[in-house]
Specification:
By secondary structure, this protein is of the alpha/beta class. The chain is built from twelve helices and ten strands. The chain folds into three domains: 113 residues, Tetrapyrrole methylase, N-terminal domain (Cobalt-precorrin-4 Transmethylase, domain 1); 105 residues, Methyltransferase, Cobalt-precorrin-4 Transmethylase, Domain 2; 44 residues. It has a five-stranded parallel beta sheet with strand order 3-2-4-1-5, sandwiched between helices. A five-stranded mixed beta sheet has the order 6-7-10-8-9, sandwiched between helices. The protein binds S-adenosylmethionine (SAM). S-adenosylmethionine (SAM) binds next to helix 6, strand 7, strand 8 and strand 10.
């Protein structure tokens, strides 16, 4: 859908799906084009009507809203896709860019499968904003979304990416921040990191340091508000691992994994021999 095709002089939008990014805390970050789409759409699919009502008011839109989640009834989605044949359907989430840790992917998938026009009014996204604020390398990064709550699943998710030469970006909540940073340090090693909080709002703040420093800072002092954690890639320099660091990593991994797997995970992280680490794991286990 070209921008010419998406609206005309009579202020009607061409039929199709419009993915509309909203602000992540500062209403002024709503782009003029996003506001225009919200004013002209035939219907706006939203996560939460109360949250989006505020944004629609700000945009001067009186368009009707329909609650939509990817786990909504299939019929809600297929009705929206049907409507896109002749109407403009805007998709909005509670904050930032739809589909990014937010609903929308199945709607886009089904709209495309049905041959509907799909376009976007791009805008704020906490992941990108935090990455740019962090001072960490941006040439290659992986968005990790929210880590699982359960300790084993969280450790497994981190172990899966520990060898990647990429900056990692995590969404987080204030109360979980300290624990997550400590878990990251345990599995990924004590890398450079940043905790970005309340981006674009009055109390925007970015704390930088190593994962252990940040874990300590937030251990008994949970940060308030919305949080993104950015973790730098592993160091290029092979570091001689201190024995106690290896033991701590082994104990951490053995709390989640059988000894052989724990030895494999730690061997990969420190570039050490798996067999020797397995033997050490057995010693630690025995006491
Ligand atoms: N779709 C959104 C986006 O484009 O960033 C993300 C929605 S996700 C459900 C909510 C998470 O995004 C929060 O828990 C937090 O990790 C992050 N987030 C959203 N707004 C933020 C802000 N202003 N400052 C820091 N993190 C934010």
């Amino acid at each position: 859908m070209s921008s010419e095709a998406s609206s005309d002089a009579s202020s009607r939008l061409a039929p199709g799906l419009y993915i509309v990014a909203g602000p992540i805390g500062n209403l002024s970050d709503l782009t003029p084009r996003a506001a225009e789409i919200l004013r002209l759409a035939d219907v706006v699919a939203v996560e939460d009507t109360r949250v989006s009502a505020k944004l629609l008011r700000h945009a001067g839109s009186d368009r009707p809203m329909i609650p939509y989640h990817d786990h909504s009834d299939e019929r809600v989605r297929s009705r929206l896709v049907d409507r896109m044949a002749g109407e403009a359907v805007a998709l909005l989430c509670d904050a930032g860019t739809p589909l990014i840790s937010d609903p929308g992917y199945k709607l886009v998938r089904d709209a495309r499968a049905a041959g509907r026009a799909v376009t976007t009014a791009p805008g704020p996204c906490a992941m990108i904003a935090a990455l740019t604020l962090s001072g960490l390398p941006t040439d290659r990064f992986l968005f990790m979304g929210f880590l699982p709550n359960k300790e084993k699943a969280r450790g497994d998710a981190l172990a899966e990416v520990m060898g990647l030469r990429a900056t990692l970006v995590f969404y987080e909540s204030g109360p979980r921040t300290g624990k997550s940073l400590a878990a990251m340090a345990g599995v990924l090693g004590d890398r450079e990191a940043a905790v970005a909080r309340e981006i674009s709002k009055t109390f925007e703040e970015v704390a930088t340091g190593t994962l252990l420093e940040l874990a300590e800072r937030y251990a008994d002092n949970a940060p308030r508000g919305e949080i993104v954690i950015v973790v730098g890639p592993p160091s290029d320099e092979p570091v001689a691992a201190a024995e106690e660091d290896v033991d701590a990593a082994l104990l951490d991994a053995m709390a989640r994994l059988p000894a052989s797997k724990a030895a494999g995970e730690v061997a990969k992280r420190f570039g050490l021999e798996r067999r020797a680490l397995y033997d050490r794991a057995m010693e630690l286990k025995e006491g």
